[in-house]
Design goal:
376 residues; alpha/beta; Rossmann fold; eight-stranded mixed sheet; four-stranded antiparallel sheet; globular; P-loop_NTPase; Oligopeptide/dipeptide ABC transporter, ATPase subunit; ABC_transp_ATP-bind; transport; nucleotide-binding
Length: 376
């Protein structure tokens, strides 16, 4: 962990934007083609915190995660590690109080595919020696090997002497992911981005791996940003760690908060869609929900290079009204979560705004419509 004493949050992101321009396209066309992968997100991650980013493919989870750990330069806003602007440090600005190396050591990543993250011609021992040679130069060969054995034990790979000598192809997928996790933790990081780190594993191994992450969080005090398209995994991990789920849609966080509140009592209509698409553990309930229509007006996701004006979800939202076409909501306090939806506010012109009329044209009938609150 960093030795730096600071009252600042471990990581703070303010109004972060990552806008991509597709390569090779002439300048004139670029303004039309820009993909707003992350579109003005503010988020803090504290010590020993877990934030799970969930949402459909392409909503910006990985880009936000990479921006958080300094692997993706934002096109707008600021990202600070313990109060130090990451990119000022990376650009070796003379007033940076925390160095680029210290930040790099503190912010690590575990990728989805452990097979490609490991060099097939190197033994586990050699793979794990690399970060130690780089970040803990004070260790001699014997101490280094001892540290490697300790970490193999932490990640449940015993007998350690046996696993240390194996090549990646002599390990199962779950064991490979444990080596990747051990390698990330060897630098004693403050924050690890786990990018779909359990998705490639069999269902039974996913829970095992998430339990391991929680154990290691407890042991080392590491924080995690956990990227997942699966709400059930996000819930499992954040519920056990007092963490938060952040639901993303087209480059925005549309709802964030306590996992139980967010899943049992979602405020944002898109969170309801995600919940609908996550099969409940109970098979009886699962078969019931299979016959329900998805709580959306349209299934198709808008083009991220040309997102809708106003609230980006209004083209699919079953509760959308005229005002949602005009104005982009902020994140509002919504009892246990924060939601980027006017419906979180009792007194907003939304409630007097006209409903969008294409609902019937699309043949949609809603099972989730709610009463509007009475005027006080
Ligand atoms: N290097 C890049 N250049 C151009 N566009 C990019 C780049 N990286 C990502 N994008 C685009 O940014 C958007 C967000 O991508 P991102 O990978 O962050 O989403 P995601 O939610 O992690 O998706 P998935 O679950 O499929 O990994 C997508 O439209 C993607 O095509």
């Amino acid at each position: 962990m960093s030795e730096t004493e600071s009252d600042e949050p471990l990581l703070s992101m303010e109004d972060v934007e990552v806008h991509f321009k597709p390569g090779g396209v002439i300048e004139k066309a670029l303004s039309e083609e820009i993909v707003r992968a992350v579109d003005g997100i503010s988020l803090e991650v504290e010590e020993e915190d877990i934030v799970a980013l969930v949402g459909e493919s392409g909503c910006g989870k990985t880009t936000l995660g990479k921006a958080a750990i300094g692997l993706q330069r934002p096109t707008g806003g600021s990202i600070k590690y313990r109060g130090q602007n990451i990119w000022k440090a990376k650009d070796r600005s003379s007033d940076a109080k925390i160095s680029k190396d210290e930040i790099q050591q503190a912010l690590q990543i575990i990728h989805q595919d452990p097979g490609s993250a490991l060099n097939s011609s190197r033994r586990v021992r050699a793979t794990l020696a690399d970060p130690l040679k780089r970040w803990r130069k004070e260790l001699g060969p014997d101490e280094r090997l001892e540290t490697i054995y300790h970490f193999l034990e932490y990640v449940g790979m015993t007998p350690v002497e046996d696993y240390a000598e194996r090549f990646p192809h002599q390990l199962s997928g779950g064991e490979q992911q444990r080596v990747v996790l051990g390698r990330a933790l060897l630098t004693n990081p403050d924050l690890v981005l786990a990018d779909e780190a359990v998705s490639a594993l069999d269902v039974s191994l996913r829970v095992e791996m998430m339990d391991l992450l929680l154990e290691l969080q407890d042991m080392f005090g590491t924080s995690f940003v956990f990227v997942s398209h699966d709400l059930a995994n996000a819930r499992y991990l954040t519920k056990k760690s007092d963490g938060r789920i952040a639901v993303m849609y087209l480059g925005d966080i549309v709802e964030i908060g306590d996992p139980d509140e967010l899943i049992e009592n979602p405020t944002h209509p898109y969170t309801k869609v995600l919940r609908w698409s996550t099969p409940p553990a109970d098979p009886d309930v699962a078969s019931e929900t299979m016959h329900m229509q998805p709580p959306v007006r349209r299934i198709d996701i808008p083009d991220p290079a040309d997102p809708p004006e106003g609230c980006k979800f209004h083209t699919r939202c079953e509760h959308a009204r005229e005002v949602c076409k005009q104005e982009d909501p902020d994140l509002y306090d919504a009892d246990g979560t924060d939601a980027k939806c006017f419906r979180a506010l009792d007194n907003h012109e939304y409630w007097h705004s006209e409903e969008l009329t294409d609902r019937e044209e699309l043949g949609f009938t809603s099972s989730l419509d709610e009463e509007e609150p009475a005027d006080d």
